[in-house]
């Protein structure tokens, strides 16, 4: 692990509330999927599908021994011919029920999505919103993490922090990989690594 990379991320986060804020949001996310035992639905916008967050949540679910964190990625342009994990369309939101959690990741107000989110909430699903904050989405969400345009971190980086914190396991032992410091170090390494070489 490169100590310089870790130091860079810590410098970016120094003096901010991002670590505590993302941990609080991640605890709400983890608590809703673990205590309800239902599915986690993850949806974005047509221009911003949260692929990386879905992949990181799958990893965190494995590392923390919390399979409930594995999300169903709900896609705007899903086709029946797509692989099963990519073929879930917006109709899945209409089937959301009590015990399920809907995490909406949107850099702006996802107006075409709002009626479906509202219907899911009325049916009993827990709604969490990760985005710019404010607006109708934030008003209907049970928990919101706002990432304004002028924030120290961008939405993609905050998604990394949320997924790392969601997999955090406070218990000692073999699953101790979930400790926040280890997660932060891995995240710093990922975010500050140079792009892969082209062939």
Low-confidence stretches: 171-178
Radius of gyration: 17 Å
Biggest sheet architecture: 5 strands, parallel
**Overall geometry:** globular
In spatial order, strands of the major sheet run 2-1-3-4-5
Total count of helical runs of at least 4 residues? 8
- The chain-level structural class is alpha/beta
Q: What portion of the residues fall into strands of 2 or more residues? A: 5-15%
Order of helices and strands: HHEHEHEHEHEHH
Number-wise, the strands total: 5
* Overall mean pLDDT: 82
> Portion of residues in helices?
40-55%
Distance, first to last CA:
25 Å
Throw out a few tags for this protein.
single chain; about 200 residues; alpha/beta; 5-stranded parallel β-sheet; 8 helices; 5 strands; globular
Topology:
Elements: H1 3-13, H2 18-36, E1 40-43, H3 51-64, E2 71-74, H4 91-94, E3 101-106, H5 114-122, E4 126-131, H6 135-140, E5 143-146, H7 155-166, H8 180-192
Helix pairs in contact: 1-8, 2-7, 3-7, 7-8
Walk me through what this model shows:
By secondary structure, the protein is of the alpha/beta class. The chain has helices at 3-13, 18-36, 51-64, 91-94, 114-122, 135-140, 155-166, 180-192, and strands at residues 40-43, 71-74, 101-106, 126-131, 143-146. The model is unreliable at 171-178 (pLDDT under 50).
């Amino acid at each position: 692990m490169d100590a310089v990379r870790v130091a860079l991320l810590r410098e970016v986060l120094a003096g901010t509330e991002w670590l505590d804020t993302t941990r609080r949001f991640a605890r709400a996310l983890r608590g809703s999927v673990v205590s309800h035992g239902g599915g986690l639905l993850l949806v974005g916008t047509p221009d911003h599908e949260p692929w990386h967050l879905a992949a990181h949540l799958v990893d965190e679910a494995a590392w923390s021994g919390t399979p409930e964190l594995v999300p169903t990625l709900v896609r705007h342009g899903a086709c029946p011919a797509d692989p099963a994990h990519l073929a879930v369309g917006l109709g899945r939101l209409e089937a959301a029920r009590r015990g399920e959690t809907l995490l909406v990741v949107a850099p702006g107000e996802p107006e075409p999505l709002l009626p479906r989110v509202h219907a899911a909430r009325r049916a009993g699903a827990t709604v969490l919103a990760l985005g710019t904050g404010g607006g109708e989405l934030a008003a209907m969400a049970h928990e919101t993490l706002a990432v304004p345009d002028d924030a120290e971190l961008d939405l993609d980086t905050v998604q990394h922090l949320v997924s790392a914190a969601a997999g955090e396991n406070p218990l000692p032992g073999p699953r101790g990989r979930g400790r926040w410091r280890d997660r932060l170090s891995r995240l710093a390494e990922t975010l500050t690594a140079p792009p892969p070489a082209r062939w």
